[in-house]
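Notes from the 1:1 (GR / supervisor)

We went over the backlog. Supervisor wanted to see one worked example end to end before approving the batch request, so GR pasted a single chain during the call. The sequence is below; no edits were made to it. Supervisor asked that the structure be written out right there so they could see what the output format looks like.
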Amino acid sequence: KMDDDDDDIPQLSSHTLAALQEFYLEQQQREGMKTSQGFNQYSIGSIEEDWQLSQFWYSDETALCLAKEALVAAGEGGRIACVSAPSVYQKLKELDGKDFSVCILEYDRRFSVYGEEFIFYDYNQPLNLPENLLPHSFDIVIADPPYLSEECLEKTAETIKYLTKGKILLCTGAVMEEQAAKHLGVKMCNFIPKHLRNLANEFRCYVNYTSGLD
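Structure output shown during the call:
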């Protein structure tokens, strides 16, 4: 029968096929960006979103606003940590200030292209950090936990509290307001962050200090 013959031909699932197509498209886009004039390794989108890792980049305007807020909060010569918030890290690097330092804590090893400022980070092991990352050594920590769950927020909060001297800027869903207050003592700001692609969940910023986001 024809049907029996067809069964012997290996078939890729539609999910695998879609993933393959997305991979090849991303490769083409990346190569295209590298060969185009004025390629900037710090521009938002220079590393594509990976939705399987729950990655959603901020819009350029939002990233700039958060980066400027971090600079003011950190002060001159300040140290800034971006935890699962690569868009803000990239924008800070684009600003190219000489009077602050910044590092990126991220699970996605593609960000290791940023050299010594990249620190591999898995929120499931919140205190599994390099020895040279001393406690309370950052003037502000900006964090965007990848998942809207209390477990993810609680574990990320451990990292934030270990790193920060005090100031915290948290970006997460509006539904996490109570948990954010409970685990980090932060309050919701008036500022509404936007993403390159619209998210299904309402997104907000939270701080524990007097900020310029209200």
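Supervisor's comment: Residues 107 and 121 are 5 Å apart (CA to CA).
Batch request approved.
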